[in-house]
Amino acid sequence: MVDKCNGLPLAIVVLGGLLSRNMSHTEWRKVHDNINAYLAEEGSQTGVMTVLNLSYIDLPSYLKPCFLHLSLFPCFLHLSLFPEDYVISTRKLFLLWIAEGFVLSEQAGQQSMKDTAEVYLNELINRNLIQVVRMSVNARVVECWVHDLVQELAVRKAKEQNFFRTHDIANPLSSSTSNSSLFSSKCRRQSIYSDMERYASVEHNTPYLRSLLFFNLGHEICRISQLDFIGKCFKVLRVLDLEGVQVESLPSIVGTLIHLRYLGLRHTGLKLLPLSIGNLRSLQTLDVNNLKQVPNVIWKIQNMRYLYIEGQEDDIPLKIDTLENLQVLSGITFKQWIQINSSKLTCLGKLKLEGRYELVEALEGVEFWKSIAKLRVLKSLYLKASEESSFPSLAMDSCLYLSKLDIKGHMQKLSETFQFPPNLSQLTLDSCRLDCDPMPILEKLLKLFTLRLRADSYLGTEIHVSENGFPQLKVLQLFELSKVIKLNIENGAIP
Q1: Rounded to whole angstroms, how far apart are CA atoms 171 and 182?
Q2: For 46-60, 105-119, 272-286, 468-482, which range has the lowest pLDDT when averaged over its residues?
Q3: pLDDT, tens digit, for every residue of 390-413?
Q4: According to DSSP H, which parts of 343-469 are helical?
Q5: Is residue 137 a contact partner of residue 450, using CB atoms and an 8 Å limit?
Q6: Which of 122, 114, 74 minimizes the C-alpha distance to 97?
Q7: CA atoms of 405 and 426, how far apart (whole Å)
Q8: Which residues touch 456 (CB under 8 Å, ≥6 apart)?
Q9: Alpha carbon distance 247, 269 (integer Å)
Q10: pLDDT tens-digit map of 322-335
């Protein structure tokens, strides 16, 4: 079987991924015979594509749509005009898979749908159909990419099943090109990565379109001045992603897309969203940043699960405690948070708060930590305070499920060990400007697995870890602690 790979590394590793499972001799023989059957002609390209095709055929049914979905990402378009590969954010990929319906709740069982999507991704990685670009400190894939030959297979399979169509600069739209030759009326997904203004201006004959993704590959500023056509032409759209494309405004007609599940508006330059966005009752993911203000209609979208609204300019009240299905909330300000009833957010597992921390009165501070403690399934908390404000001591000992804590901003004083969450496994301190060595307190966190002290988190000159300190620690990251000149770790610490 290795001989059939003609010495090409990609073919060998994909074949290895195919055979790496606990397969019987009979199953190995079947793969061997299929390789011979599919090799219609000699040549390295044929050999590689044969092995890739067999790996695709061997995928379980629930993974095939996920693999085809990768063809929406232009990893290999044209060597002279586009990058050879496109780095994919796994966070975004998971949310797209969920919105497309590739990850079903009954498949997830007790784990979240994002966790199930991560299982799918890891299985594709184990089969060497996806390559890892970057991993987090806790060994989770953050970014990935697809080899050009794997991408070619994905595109070919997607076209065979009418899964998607693309419009690129190598095949530009023109007045002489008929719409029917560009996109079949039965087309369900379109990926656009050039000539966007012209795409917006032509007549569209794809009424059953479910997904529309735009990509800015970074060669020039991409703009779309008018988006009304989306609301008029694509009534059953489920996924709309405009990330990185400059958009002048989002028309109110977008509120008629009642089937929309995913709306990606990050890095579009938008400052305002229309009030009609509150009509998107099926919306599960809203991903936008740097708005002037978030319209106070989000509370109407009761199916919302993933809400990303980082970088708000105006700190106006925002009602969200009606969103009982919300699992991720990123970018709400401290002022907005303290005004809601957090006990109603029964599914919230990840929370990021940012902005000016102005809870100057002791009672307000107590109430703030109580509001965090009401989140019974919270696992990840990120607190980011503006430069002119500071955090008081933590009071999070009742946050029983919280395992990951990130704090960025000045801290008046580091809390005592007993005030930290009892099951904390990951802790990051950034720009905290602590005067006293934090190690005598942090080394007593018995379940801490990862500790990161980033820029200016500590302003002292010495760090000392005592004997038997950090009994479970596996990762210690000290980054840009410019004043530290001595690190002393006693015997028996950090085993």
Answers
A1: 9
A2: 46-60
A3: 887 788 888 999 999 999 999 988
A4: 362-373, 439-442
A5: yes
A6: 114
A7: 6
A8: 430, 431, 432, 433, 480, 481, 482
A9: 6
A10: 999 999 999 999 98
- pLDDT beyond 60 at 37: no
Mean pLDDT for 224-230 is: 81
Provide CB contacts within 8 A for 200, sequence distance 6+: 224, 225, 226, 227, 229
Residue with tokens 């009304």: 228
Tell me how far apart the alpha carbons of residues 353 and 346 are, in angstroms, rounded to a whole number: 17
Pair of tokens at residue 186:
């039965």
**Predicted TM-score (pTM) of this structure:** 0.84
What's the length of the chain?
495
Count the Cβ atoms, other than its own, within 10 Å of residue 35.
19
Lowest-pLDDT range of 105-109, 133-137, 160-164: 105-109
E strand spans, 92-171:
131-135, 141-145, 165-167
| pLDDT in the model for residue 208 | 86
Rg (CA), the chain: 25
Find out whether 267 and 308 touch, Cβ atoms under 8 Å: no
Which residue from 144, 150, 50 is spatially nearest to 97, judged by alpha carbons? 144
Q: What is the pLDDT of residue 181?
A: 44
Percent of the chain with pLDDT strictly greater than 90: 44
Query: What is the tens place of the pLDDT at every residue in 119-156?
Result: 888 887 887 778 899 999 888 999 998 877 777 777 77
Q: Which of 157, 143, 12, 142 is nearest to 71 (CA)?
A: 157
- Please determine, for residue 192, whether its predicted confidence score (pLDDT) is greater than 90: no
What is the C-alpha separation between 263 and 287, in angstroms, rounded?
A: 6
Question: 224 phi and psi, to 5 degrees?
Answer: -135, 115
| Amino acid occupying residue 458 | Y
With the C-alpha atoms ordered 120, 122, 124, 126, is the resulting torsion angle positive or negative?
negative
Under 8 Å between Cβ of 420 and 443: no
The C-alpha atoms of residue 95 and residue 152 are separated, in whole angstroms, by: 24
The tokens for 82 are: 């586009």
Is residue 178 predicted with pLDDT exceeding 90? no
Hunting for tokens 């802790």 — which residue is that?
A: 427
89-93 LR contacts (CB < 8 Å, sep 24+): 89/142, 89/143, 90/118, 90/121, 90/141, 90/142, 90/143, 90/144, 91/142, 92/243, 92/264, 92/287, 93/69, 93/117, 93/121, 93/144
Between CA 314 and CA 297 the distance in angstroms is 16
* % of the chain surpassing 70 pLDDT: 76
Bridge partner residues of 477 (DSSP):
452
